[in-house]
Amino acid sequence: MLLTLEYERDWEILGKFRDMAATHAVIALIGEEPAVLGARAVRAGAQSVLPRGVAAGMLRRTVEATSEGQAVLPAVVATALATGAHRADGNAKPPSPRQLSWLRQLTKGSTVAQLARRAGYSERAMFRLLQALYEEMGVATRIQAIVRAQEQRSFGTGTGFSGDLDAGSGRARR
User: Fold this and answer.
1) Are 49 and 72 in contact (CB under 8 A)?
2) DSSP-assigned beta bridge partners for residue 4
3) For residue 38, which of 77, 78, 122, 150 is within the disulfide window of CB 3.0 to 4.6 Å?
4) Residue 161 gets which letter from DSSP?
5) Contact (Cβ atoms closer than 8 angstroms) between residue 81 and residue 30
6) How far apart are CA 41 and CA 34, in angstroms?
């Protein structure tokens, strides 16, 4: 399946294919910022990534390779995935107080299901909210998000784990 990733709804469609464990391989067609968008497409479930203006011959070869179980990526995307360069964006959005509360609760051993219950979301919705948070922070995993928050001093001074923020209001509670 060819999927052009231009609008946010296109990314949502790619995510739905990933969530359904679709048996169809997705070839993502991306525009500008190939390292960032290509890496995001792979993390979101694309098997292969090509620039939108790709030549017909390359598209044909990519369809054949992908249908045979191979992945085709521009070198800049492969390099970004291997080095994590696509996450080195200094413009990564810092977590909100509510999101920091989620991270704090996760560091204390809460499961996503417990966190979802406390925050008033379904487990699936909470999982997606956390994935969006990781994306906003420019990281791929929970551990990376926690480390990034600590590096950015988002948890405050010291360990930052004494006390917690109320998930709904963002106010500290002891």
Assistant:
1) yes
2) 29
3) 77
4) -
5) no
6) 10
**Is this model's pTM higher than 0.70 or not?**
no
pLDDT(105) > 50? yes
b/e per residue, 92-127, with b = 16+ CB within 10 A? eeebeebbbbbbbbbbeeeebeebbebbebeeeebb
User: What are the start-end ranges of the H helices in the chain?
Assistant: 8-19, 34-43, 56-67, 75-83, 97-107, 112-119, 123-137, 142-151
Number of Cα atoms under 13 Å in the Cβ half of residue 118: 18
Count of CB atoms within 10 A of residue 89's CB?
11
If you ran DSSP here, which 8-state letter would residue 32 be given? Answer: S
Q: Identify which of 155, 133, 163, 162 has the alpha carbon closest to the alpha carbon of residue 145.
A: 133
Return the higher-pLDDT residue of 173 and 100.
100
Q: For residue range 35-67, what is the model confidence (pLDDT) as tens digits?
A: 778 888 888 888 899 998 889 999 999 999 988
Give the dihedral sign, CA 160/94/87/28: positive
The Cα–Cα gap between 65 and 58 comes to: 10
